[in-house]
Amino acid sequence: MIIMIAAVAENNALGKNNELVWHLPNDFKRFKELTSHHHIIMGRKTFESFPKPLPNRTHIVITRQEDYKPEGCIIVDTIEKAIAICPNNEDSFIIGGGEIYALGMPLTDIIEITRVHHTFDADTFFPEIKEEDWLLVESESNFKDEKHLYDYTYETYIKR
């Protein structure tokens, strides 16, 4: 299965200047639990936003830069090639950024969203989840606390 995973604000904001604009430790834990030991597909800018490659994951980076060759990554130039590399019998994850999410939306089976209940000034946005294409099958509310400045909800969508 191809699973798209993202943390998205109420206004579909993903981030600004190649960084998240919120900090939700529980969301980071959930991301790690879901994506560890799987293939993760991302754009070059998303990959470069990490201080180092994420452990226990196979990184597939999509870029048009022909000379881009970071160590330990598989480099491709289309989302279709990225998905073709992923094992058919395992979950693989599209992890961003905005352009890659838009390209991957028609190729995705499941969307795992952390909906951050706030709006943010951003320069990168998640594509609209259209009700006619996607069915919300699970929703788990979480409330702000000493480690989380915002309420947030985990949402799982499946393709109709």
TrEMBL record:
Name of the protein in question: Dihydrofolate reductase
Record-linked PROSITE patterns: DHFR_2
Top-level taxon of the source organism: Bacteria
PANTHER family with a match to the protein in the record: DIHYDROFOLATE REDUCTASE
Protein EC: 1.5.1.3
Pathway note: Cofactor biosynthesis; tetrahydrofolate biosynthesis; 5,6,7,8-tetrahydrofolate from 7,8-dihydrofolate: step 1/1
The DHFR domain, residue ranges: 1-159
Keyword Oxidoreductase in record: yes
Similarity comment: family membership: Belongs to the dihydrofolate reductase family.
Coiled-coil ranges (or none): none
GO molecular function: dihydrofolate reductase activity; NADP+ binding
Cellular-component GO terms for this entry: cytosol
Primary role: Key enzyme in folate metabolism. Catalyzes an essential reaction for de novo glycine and purine synthesis, and for DNA precursor synthesis.
InterPro entries (UniProt xref): DHFR, DHFR-like_dom_sf, DHFR_dom
GO BP term, pick one: one-carbon metabolic process
Swiss-Prot/TrEMBL keywords: NADP, One-carbon metabolism, Oxidoreductase
Keyword Glycosyltransferase: no
Catalyzed chemical reaction(s): (6S)-5,6,7,8-tetrahydrofolate + NADP(+) = 7,8-dihydrofolate + NADPH + H(+)
